[in-house]
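Hi F.,

I've been meaning to write this up properly since the lab meeting, where we talked about keeping a consistent format for the predictions we share between groups. The idea is simple: the sequence comes first, exactly as it goes in, then the C-alpha cells exactly as they come out, then a line or two of notes. No screenshots and no reformatting. I'm using this chain as the first example so we have something concrete to point to.
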Amino acid sequence: MTNRERLLRSLNHEEADRVPIDVGATLITGITKVAYGKFIEYLGMPPEDAPFFDIVQQLVSPSETFLRKFGIDVRNVSPSPGRDWTLRMEDDGEYLHFVDEWGITWRMPKDGGHYFDMYGHPLSKEPLSAGDVASMRLPDVEDESRYRDIRAKARQLRDDGYGVVMSSISAGMHELGGWMRGYENYYADLLLDEDLAGSYLDRFLEVKMEYWDRVLSEAGDLIDVVQEADDLGSQNAMLVSPEIYRKVIKPRHKELFDRIRGKTDAKIFIHSCGSFLEVIPDLIEVGVQILNPVQYTAEGMDSRLLKREFGADLVFWGGGVDTQRILPRGSPEEVRKNVREQIETLAPGGGFVFNTVHNIQADVPPENLAAMFEAFEMFAPY
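Output, unedited:
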C-alpha cells in the first residue's frame, strides 16, 4: 500500500494497514526549527540547515530523509511569493521585524524569541472609510510567478506515492479580519458596523477565490487535500458567538468552499484551534470534510464526543497527542499513554490522520518526540 493509498482510505472513512501520519505538510501540522534541530541531533542524524516553511511560526521543512524514516504519508505543495513582495528583515537592535505581503508588520525579540508576533495592522486607523478598504494592500493573485511549477511538483509527489496537500494563500477570512484591522476594532465592527466588517471580509474572500481558481485550474486533479484555516475558538469558548458566525462568517465560508468543490474532488481541510463545538454542524453543512487540529483539551471538544457525534462526516487530522501539557512537559511514558489513548479513540473505522494538536513547539524535549513516534509505530496498525 502506498502512502497516498493509505491516506485516501482514511479520508474515505475506511481502515487501511495503519493510521496515516503527517508531520510538516501544512503550516499547522509542522515542527519548529528549534524542536527539529534538537530532535535530529538526539537521533544521531547529520545536522541540517532546514529551510523555513513559515518564517512567522519558525517552522521548517523536514528533510526527505526524516520524512521517510518516520513513514510520513503526506507532502505539501505551496504557492510561491509574488514578484511584488520580497522578505526584507530589519534589525532594530532589540527585535527583528518585517512587513508581509498583506501589509501586516511582524516582530520577534532577538533574545529568546521563538516566533513573530503581529505588531502593525494596516486597517487599524479610526475611522476606517470605504476608500481605505478599497485601497488596502492585497497580494497579487494574478502574478503567474506565484504558481510556477505547482503542477510539476504535485505530479512528482503523486508519482512518488504520497498524498498531496495544497496550502492556502493566507489565514482565513475571519482571522484576517483581526490581523488586518486589529482585534479590538474587528470585534467592534462585527457588533456595531457589520457592513464595514463585511466590506473587508469580502475583499479577503475575493483574493482567496481567485487564488483557488488559479491553483485548481493548474493542478486540481492532482491535489488530495485543500487546506484552509480560520480560528474560531479560544480555550474555553468561541471567539465570536455562534449567531455572529452564522450571520457573518458562515455565508462567506460557504461561498469559498462551494467555489473550491466546483473545481476539484480534493477534500476540504479547515484548521480551527480552541472550542467551537456549537458550529461544527455548520462547518459540515458548508462543506468542511477534515477538521484540524482537534484540540481535545479545549472546552467541549472531548475526542470521544467528536468521534461519536461527527465521525461519520469529518476526518480528524490531529488530536494525536496533547501539545499544551503532555508533549512539552510530560514524561515519555505519559506521551506514549496519551498517543495510545488518542489512537484508540479516533482511529476506529478510519477518518483519522495522526498529527500533534497543532505544531511541535521549541519547548518539546526530543525524548518525548521519540516516545511519540515509538507509540505511533506500536499502536497505529489496524
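Notes:
The chain is about 40% helix and 15% strand.
The first helix runs from residue 3 to 11.

If this format works for you, I'll send the rest the same way.

G.
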